[in-house]
Amino acid sequence: MEPNVAARALSAATEITTTVLSGDDPDAVLPMVVRHAVQIADADLGLLMVRDEDGSVTVEAAYGADTAGLIGLVLPAESAAGRVAGGAEPVFADDVTSDPRTSQFVPTELAGYGPFAAAPFGTGGKRLGVLTAYRAPHRAPFDTGTGDLLTAFAGQAGVVLALADGADARHRLTLYQERERIARELHDVVVQRLYAAGMQLDRVHRRLHRRFARTERDRLGEAIEQLDQTIEEIRGTVRELRSPEPVPETPDASDLAESARSEVRIAGELLGYPPTLELSGELAGIPGERGDHIRAALREALSNVVRHSGASEVRVTLERDDREVRLRVRDNGCGVPADVARRGLRHLAERADAAGGRFDVNSSPSMGTMVALEIPL
Fold it and tell me: One Pfam family for this entry, by name (predicted)?
């Protein structure tokens, strides 16, 4: 093997490593890998194929004189490329169309080539696919030195890409976890305090309605509306924070029993009497998003009781079985007034629909109101 060929291989490996470590998308580096492989092996065509779950390999990058139609080409697991990607030893053939190890699976797009080489892209547990090189039929086969060099280069480049992809995944996971922490604090702390403050202001507003001048009443009413709007905006921010580029992650499980006690306690302070709370079933470990739906429904229902119902009795029932979680909030008040905005209730209906559940509100001046939510597990 000529010294300048080995030097080119070392230079190519260094360039690839530097590019990957600079933060470039690993997928964008694949064409560079194939280009260097063609130069190192003195080939006419190079293909980088990534192994799929079924063992087949798909061409992700190509370099050579004629690469039209090659990107996306799939070779079966039984092909030489598929076997090498799956863990077999490198394959070197004098003629890809006649060698019994390769000829059966040569697609039409590659039938015009002769000498063939297939080296694993990556090594050991970090084997990502296969790097193949082709020469024109009239050219000499790949010699042992070139084959060894191509194999070493493909192995090293694959490992670099695998490690970089793993580091990027860890970074994205860390970012996602931080976003989830911020979202949880906004949801559990900030929204809770704003909600309580808004209900207290509304209570003051109703009690002192006759003692305020009209201008002051309107000003206090606007402050309550702004608090409601701020809560909705924060909830929207929470949803966005919890929906970044998805890194597979199971949302934090919810302890709905503790959440229900907290919501009922706040409502009791504002109503002047404690609502009845009945809990049934295992309410810890509810999937995070479904727990959020239940909490939002309970908060909205109790908020409406405090603000509009004039009820003297409120009963909250929360139960879980193997299939679903069920929430019921009943009061003996005047029902939901016709002139009250139902934006919050519509939002809860949309939540239930998105989760495959059901949301109902039954309300009348004589019977009071019942809010019901069922969320499947």
Answer: HATPase_c
